[in-house]
C-alpha cells in the first residue's frame, strides 16, 4: 500500500504541475464501499490520469504485455502497473477475459474501486461510441454505484500515432453516482443494455462529445 500511495502521489504531482488539469466533482466519489468508475476513452494515458487524480484507488485492466516485457524498461513498467493496481489481461482470449471479470468482482466485493471503459477501447476520432454491456453487468450483479467520468482533451497528451507525451491542459469531470438495483448475475440482456445506455448518457453529458450509435471497431488495444 505504501508503494501504491507513493507512486500515485508522485504521478498526481507530475500531472498537476505539468498539465494543470481542471478537475471537477471529486466529491462525488463515495468515501467508502465499492464503486465503478466509467470514463470515456481518448488516450492511452486515461487510466493513469484517473488512477492518479481520484481520491480513492481505482483498478483498471491493462495489457498482459505490460507485466511480462523484459529488460529494465519492462521491469519498470511492471512495477508501475502493479503499484497502481492494474489488472493484467490477455486480450482476445475468452478464458482470460472471464477470469479478469471475476477479478473485478473480487475487488468490488472487498469494498474497493474498479475502472472500466464502456466503449471498450479508445476513440481515434473523438466520438463517443455505443457502450458495451460489461459495465451494466457489473452494476447489476454487484449493486455498486457507477461514477461516470468525462475526460476532455486527454487525446492531445499523446495522439494515437505518437509515442512521446506532450503536457497539455485537460479536464476531468466526475459525475454524480448512478445507482441500480442489485439483481445478482441473473438478469436479462435488455436490462444490461438499459443500464449501460443510462451510463453512456451521463458520460456524454460530462464530456460533451458527439455520439455514435455504433460500437467502436478500432484495433487500438490499451
Entry keywords:
single chain; two-stranded parallel sheet; globular; 8 strands; Glycerol-3-phosphate (1)-acyltransferase; alpha/beta; 222 residues
The count of strands amounts to 8
Radius of gyration: 16 Å
The amount of helix comes to 25-40%
Mean pLDDT: 88
* Beta fraction: 5-15%
Could you name the CATH homologous superfamily?
Glycerol-3-phosphate (1)-acyltransferase
Task: Report the structural category.
Answer: alpha/beta
Query: What is the general shape?
Result: globular
Q: Tally the helices.
A: 7
CATH class identity:
Alpha Beta
Q: How many discrete domains?
A: 1
| Gross CATH architecture | 3-Layer(aba) Sandwich
Order of helices and strands: HEEHEEHHEHEHEEH
N- and C-termini, Cα separation = 25 Å
As laid out across the biggest beta sheet, the strand order is: 1-8-7-2-6-3
Stretches with pLDDT under 50, minimum 5 residues? none
CATH topology: Glycerol-3-phosphate (1)-acyltransferase
Largest sheet geometry: 6 strands, mixed
Amino acid at each position: 500500500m505504501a508503494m501504491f500511495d507513493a507512486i500515485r502521489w508522485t504521478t498526481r504531482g507530475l500531472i498537476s504541475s505539468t498539465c494543470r488539469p481542471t478537475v471537477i466533482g471529486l466529491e462525488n466519489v463515495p468515501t467508502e464501499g465499492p464503486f465503478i468508475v466509467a470514463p470515456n476513452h481518448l488516450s492511452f494515458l486515461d487510466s493513469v490520469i484517473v488512477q492518479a487524480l481520484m481520491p480513492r484507488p481505482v483498478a483498471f485492466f491493462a495489457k498482459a504485455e505490460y507485466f511480462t516485457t523484459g529488460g529494465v524498461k519492462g521491469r519498470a513498467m511492471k512495477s508501475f502497473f502493479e503499484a497502481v493496481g492494474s489488472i493484467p489481461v490477455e486480450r482476445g482470449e475468452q478464458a482470460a477475459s472471464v477470469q479478469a471479470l471475476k477479478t473485478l468482482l473480487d475487488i468490488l466485493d472487498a469494498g474497493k474501486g474498479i475502472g472500466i471503459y464502456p466503449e471498450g477501447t479508445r476513440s481515434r476520432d473523438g466520438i463517443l461510441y455505443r457502450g458495451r454491456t460489461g459495465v451494466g453487468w457489473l452494476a447489476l450483479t454487484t449493486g455498486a454505484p457507477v461514477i461516470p467520468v468525462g475526460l476532455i482533451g486527454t487525446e492531445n497528451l499523446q495522439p494515437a500515432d505518437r509515442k512521446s507525451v506532450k503536457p497539455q491542459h485537460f479536464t476531468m469531470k466526475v459525475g454524480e453516482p448512478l445507482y441500480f438495483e442489485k439483481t445478482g448475475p441473473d438478469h436479462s440482456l435488455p436490462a444490461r443494455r438499459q443500464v449501460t445506455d443510462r451510463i453512456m448518457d451521463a458520460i456524454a453529458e460530462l464530456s460533451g462529445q458527439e455520439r455514435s450509435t455504433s460500437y467502436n471497431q478500432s484495433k487500438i488495444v490499451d
